[in-house]
Amino acid sequence: MSLIKIAKGSEAKHVYQNGISKLPILVGEYKDAAFERVSLQAGAEWTPEIYKLTEHNQVFLFTSGKGYIKTPRQAFIIKEVSVFVPEFDVEEFTIKCPVDAKETLEIIHIVTEVNDYDKTCLVESRMALPRFRGVSEAWQYKEDFTGADIVQKMMLEHRNLGRLSMGANFGSGPNYIGQHIHNELQQWYIMLPGASFTYTAGDETIHVEEGDVTYTKSGSLHGSECKEGERFAYIWFELCTDGYPGEIK
Ligand SMILES: [Fe+2]
Is 172 exposed, middle or buried (0-12, 13-18, 19+ CB in 10 A)? Predict the structure, then answer.
């Protein structure tokens, strides 16, 4: 069984109904997270299902295109790579691709299971929701095993949304993200427009591009390289298997 699971962007064939297409990806690869690609054509409006805090958490990652999200109290403009986390079932919201949009609004929708750690954590202290953050508004962090000029952005902070976290890496080749390991973190990469690089986990090496989504289970050594003319542009999404060590469980 291969270590790196991949849903290729080039193999995604959208089928639209009322301007919306949903394609489940990486089905069954990890029990606690369900992924789907959602695409909205110009003029389409989507009102996703909402869940109680004790049922599921969900995250919407906007990877390309423009649009907006409307809640009863607020509106968020999607004009760059952005993430949205609704406040569970507190309020409904709609995601809209404008009538005059030149391109589709592309979304990776993630629904996660809420375990006991999540329930405790989310009730005791969590980031204020709904959270909407564009990549240009995200704070920058640095890991010493990455190339000096890799730009790393925090989209959803660890320990502030139960087991979930999300960030982004950008950089031009030649460049590298050194081999490292996360013993507790399940890890997904979502390749953004312009991405083209080589990803290695364990003894497997693959080339990834825009639209690809990979899943690598916890505990495997992994890293990436991009050559001259290639580019790092991806979102990482992580789920701590049981909860962060040393914390409430
Ligand atoms: Fe990693």
Answer: middle
CB 168, CB 235: distance < 8 Å: yes
Centre of ligand 1 to C-alpha 178, Å, is: 9
- pLDDT at 96 (0 to 100): 98
Tell me, in angstroms, the distance from the centre of ligand 1 to residue 128's CA.
Answer: 26
Q: How far is the CA of 237 from the centre of ligand 1 (A)?
A: 9
Cα 1 to Cα 3: distance, rounded to the nearest angstrom: 6
> Which H/E stretch holds residue 152?
strand 151-156
Token code pair at residue 2: 């291969």
Q: Averaged in consecutive runs of 10 residues, what is the pLDDT profile of the chain (249 residues)?
A: 92 97 97 97 98 96 98 97 97 98 98 93 91 97 92 95 96 96 94 98 97 96 97 97 66
Locate tokens 């202290």: which residue?
125
Q: Which residues contact 50 (CB under 8 A, 6 or more apart)?
A: 86, 88, 89, 91, 92, 93
Contact 96, 68 (CB under 8 A): yes
Residues pairing with 195 in the sheet: none
Do residues 82 and 190 touch, judged by C-beta distance below 8 A? no
> Ligand 1 centroid vs 63 CA: distance in angstroms?
20
Q: What is the DSSP letter of 161?
A: B
Specify the pTM: 0.96
In the reported structure, the alpha carbon of residue 180 is separated from the centroid of ligand 1 by a whole-number distance in angstroms of 6
CATH numbers and ranges of domains, the chain: 10-136 (2.60.120.10), 139-240 (2.60.120.10)
d(CA 146, CA 179): 9
The pair of structure tokens assigned to 107 is: 């979304």
